[in-house]
Amino acid sequence: MFYLILAVLLVLFYIFAAPKAIKGTLNLMLLVFAVVLVVTLIILAIISLTSSSAEVWAGGIVTFLGLWAIWDMEKMTSRSRDKSETNFFDQ
Fold this sequence. Notes:
3 helices, DUF3165, Membrane protein, transmembrane helix, transmembrane
């Protein structure tokens, strides 16, 4: 709770009272904080994924292969067919 109050006070100081000379430094500090937060969340996500069951891994692999197959089929070029080659359902 202490850190939440401290964070609110810092945000209010940044918005209402910080001079322009300090805002550049605070922007850099906020950027570093955001990068550290994102890296920490990525590490926690990787740790939680490694403790997942085999069904989650199998589902992820099957989803990846399905999306890869769809992407590969979209890249295929379709040749133009002759009228005599067309099927009844293609008309």
